[in-house]
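Re: weekly structure request thread

Next one in the queue (327 aa):
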Amino acid sequence: MTANHRSPQTKRSWRWTGSIVLGLALSGCGDDRPQALGTLEWDRVALPAPAAEKIVRIDVREGQRVQAGARLLQLEVTRTQSQLAALQAQAKQADDVLDELRTGPRSEDIAQARANLAAAQAQAADARAYYTRLQPLGRQRLVAAADVDRARAAAGHVDAQVRALQAALLELERGTRREQIAQGESAVAAAKAQAAAQAVTLDKLDLTAPRAGVVDSLPYRLGDQAPVGAPLAVLLVGDAPYARVYVPEPIRASVRVGQSAHVFVDGREQALDGTVRMIRSEPSFTPYYALIGKDAARLSYLAEVTLTGSDAMQLPAGLPVRVEFAQ
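Done, posted below.
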């Protein structure tokens, strides 16, 4: 069939298809404003597990809006309470030792040291007298030379004991050194700091919302025991959502922080106003050093556009968005 003998139905179909293609071409030529694609997001706050304890109570559900300070869930506290009690007892012991150092030696200890010194001095006098008597007998060979040597050694040993007891008595009489008191104070401070840290951990076992927001996720269920650092709850917080988009390289130079933008959310015909709050300086996807020529257009730069207006507060996270930047 030639072009001049086409049926009327075929001619109408061709005219309809041609009008669609022409409309798309005109719309593509007319809409040349810089735009980027991405998703709608909220600021997220993750609450990590402070200890590997079992979840014994959950007070909220996913999707629930909570105020700052609201209880979210409770972990088992028995073991942490026992550890805190042990650390508090150690801190009390260190504090008592410091008080003893500051008070100094007791008068009874000083009296006992003096008595021990007197006894040692008496033994020393007796040992020296015995050695003195034994010396002439040794010179006359009336006693063995070994006996004289043992008497001399015994006298020297007792004299050394006397000097040691004299030094110990002097130490007690002068009291505790400043350095010992400083060491005691440091030990008390360390013990109290450990107890305070454990008290903070105990307090964190009762998880509360740090900010007002919406409970986005509760990864663990009642009875689970999450490892330390695992997120027990994730909150969506902030005054307004933001569009997380990737700016193509050809329009990167025209996008700046503080610039106005129009955000088109999937499922809504009306655009929302927004402001660029952040744009990364480093590209994503293909590294810049591996690109030349036209391939540089494959680069993208992560940007965030804050939405304004009361309508944005009701939008959930994860919706596809398209952002047009004001020129």
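DSSP finds five helices and eleven strands in the chain. The radius of gyration is 44 Å.
Next request, please.
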